[in-house]
């Protein structure tokens, strides 16, 4: 798309918003429209002027319509998520929608991460861009504010299941950033949130790829100070011992020695 003046960009965004308010449900019609909208939104700077806010207002409304957010076509849903992700970038650090709509938005965004391993997919680049934007504008912190606990656990599971050696380095880095941010910004770190990480690092988990283990280890190392006591409790809640996991878990938990109780000491000795 050639370079556009601000006025031309506003006109095109406004026209695209009108098209989206009464969209066709056919993927063949929707996908090119969503591609165009995403490209236009990518040209909008953060905290835009009032005229630009007015231009994207119909788009913001249209993108969260139920027929789009819950569309049966996976590529359409990823396309919608990619456009909304651009909206969250534009309005950051403020959320663009009310709490209930934001929960729907995050469910859509999290679901887009599920098939990140499929680099041949039409939507792979969009999934990667959504991931990068969530990391860059820290929108995952809003998920904590909205108490989307189960959704965050699901996101962690998607990351640890989907990461591959053949991914661009930015994908690994964005996953690492998001997971670390969530742990660091959590008021309390529940065992449920740590369980996907611990499950990946369990010595007898042959299904976990080395790159997944590397991601889990990096996240633990990054947030060691914050999660140390929570990590020990999570190991206990799994009725496991430290020697069931990799050295990174053991070393972080052992730093907790001296401030732990009897049960924790048993875990540190490698006894469940």
From TrEMBL:
InterPro entries: ARM-type_fold, Pds5. Keywords: Cell cycle, Cell division, DNA damage, DNA repair, Mitosis, Nucleus. It is found in: Nucleus. Pfam families: PDS5 (PF20168). GO terms for biological process: cell division; DNA repair; homologous recombination; mitotic sister chromatid cohesion. GO terms for cellular component: nucleus. It comes from the Eukaryota. This is TATA-binding protein interacting (TIP20) domain-containing protein. It comes from Erythranthe guttata.
